[in-house]
Design goal:
CATH superfamily of the largest domain: EreA-like (biosynthetic domain)
Oligomer: single chain
Number of strands: 11
GO biological process, one term: response to antibiotic
CATH architecture of the largest domain: 3-Layer(aba) Sandwich
Protein name: Erythromycin esterase family protein
CATH topology of the largest domain: EreA/ChaN-like  fold
Low-confidence stretches: 417-421
Helix content: 40-55%
Strand content: 5-15%
Order of helices and strands: HEHEHEHHHEHHHHHHEHHEEHEHEEHE
Organism: Paenibacillus zeisoli
Number of helices: 17
Distance between the termini: 48 Å
Mean pLDDT: 94
CATH class of the largest domain: Alpha Beta
Length: about 425
């Protein structure tokens, strides 16, 4: 009875999806300031291409000011400089992706992103700096890279902040650029560097407001790198003992970084956010809430309400890029058909075609019933498929959903030297 009710609701709500009816979704997004675009894996081509096409429409029709992604600030800032046409930012999009050397490199170093980057560069050409659309990373993993960027920026400035930064970073030197070693030392032995980083962040905070107009974004970048160091320090310090706490630190950091970017771009600015479904779909509509976990979608909805729009994605079967373990070589893996009575299998059962669902209160079944919803991470084992489903009240988790019956792996490109830290 439960599943038949869900099937009936899907039949009433779903419409065939194709690239030509994205305008219907754009209309529903309306004037939302935070447009959250999810993905059910970090290695599926269609998720990237559809998000890119939707993002282009939102930029041209809704005046989106920037894209924020589940990536590191330093490497994304290199790409940001390229799409804005800044000097010495790379001769091509592939060249601008050179800093995406941290595993999993394929998340951003892929053909799908190079095509979006080239479109952004063409769009930004001839526009003022204030009108150019940016591309930024808001994640927490870039502990050492962000420290390097802060020192590089401050070395070009004649201020006392450089000496303060060097003093703060001396605290990290005994750990030889090893996050796990730092986490163990900070968590188990109380030898952390939190106070030093907080002090440095206070020195750099809001310096962009007084900077020369041509240097405002670089000053912002120094602060965002300090914010990333602060977030990374807390993340690695807590992950040794507390999985839930480290997750919450990470998602709270991403919200903080996103709001700082909103402040920089001015009152009324609007952004598109690219992250996994597990980050952008409201955690309160999943079993994450029972674990004490929060996420970006929940935190933004709690604070900004109707100014937030969340779009989820899913597929029935196909292929994906992932690794068998953290730091393992990337592989093209088969995504098996969705398990029976999962959200994806129910969508497939109503017809093996792509679908768009825009949720409304007229279908309470989709808000009330809990159904498994597939989530594939950068580490994936198709043979353990049942462990990849998140119990979800789908219409509470997202405002809309794109279902793709068959999907394929994205196309990674090779850049630089690989780091799996």
């Amino acid at each position: 009875m439960k599943f038949q009710s869900i099937l009936d609701s899907i039949t009433r709500v779903a419409v065939p999806f194709n690239r030509n009816n994205l305008s219907r979704l754009v209309e529903r997004i309306g004037e939302a300031r935070y447009v959250l675009l999810g993905e059910a894996s970090h290695g599926t081509s269609e998720y990237y291409r559809i998000r890119a096409e939707l993002t282009r429409q939102l930029i041209t029709e809704k005046d989106i000011r920037f894209i924020a992604v589940e990536g590191d600030w330093p490497s994304c800032y290199t790409l940001n400089r390229y799409v804005k046409g800044y000097a010495d930012s790379g001769a091509s999009a592939a060249d601008a992706l050179r800093d995406f050397t941290r595993w999993p490199t394929w998340m951003w170093a892929n053909q799908e992103i190079t095509e979006l980057a080239d479109w952004l560069r063409d769009y930004n050409e001839g526009r003022s700096d204030e009108e150019k659309v940016g591309f930024y990373g808001i994640d927490v993993y870039s502990l050492w890279e962000s420290m390097d960027e802060i020192l590089k920026y401050l070395s070009a400035k004649d201020t006392g902040d450089l000496a303060a930064a060097k003093r703060a970073f001396e605290c990290f030197e005994p750990h030889d650029r090893n996050e796990q070693a730092y986490g163990i030392s900070a968590s188990l032995y109380g030898e952390g560097c939190e106070d030093e980083i907080v002090t440095l962040l206070r020195r750099l905070q809001d310096k962009w407001k007084a900077a020369h107009p041509k240097d405002q974004e670089n000053a912002l970048s120094a602060e965002m790198n300090a914010l990333a160091v602060k977030g990374a320090e807390a993340y690695y310090r807590t992950m040794i003992r507390h999985d839930t706490e480290s997750w919450n630190i990470r998602d709270r950091h991403m919200v903080h970084a996103l709001e700082k970017l909103m402040e920089f771009h001015g009152q009324g600015s609007r952004a598109v956010v690219w992250e996994h479904n597990t980050h952008i779909g409201d955690a309160r509509a999943t079993d994450m809430a029972e674990e004490g976990m929060v996420n970006v979608g929940q935190l933004l909805r709690e604070k900004h309400g109707e100014d937030v729009f969340a779009l989820g994605f899913g597929t029935y079967q196909g292929t994906v890029i992932a690794g068998k373990a953290w730091g393992a070589p990337q592989e093209e893996m088969k995504v098996p058909s969705a398990i029976k009575n999962s959200w994806e299998e129910l969508l497939h059962r109503t017809g093996a075609e792509d679908k768009l669902l825009i949720f409304n209160s007229n279908e309470p079944v989709l808000e009330e019933f809990v159904v498994g919803h597939r989530a594939i991470g950068v580490v994936y084992h198709p043979e353990w498929e049942r462990g990849n489903y998140v119990p979800t009240r789908i219409a509470k988790r997202y405002d809309a959903f794109i279902y793709l019956d068959q999907t394929r792996a994205l196309a990674p490109i090779t850049v630089g030297s690989l780091s799996s830290s």
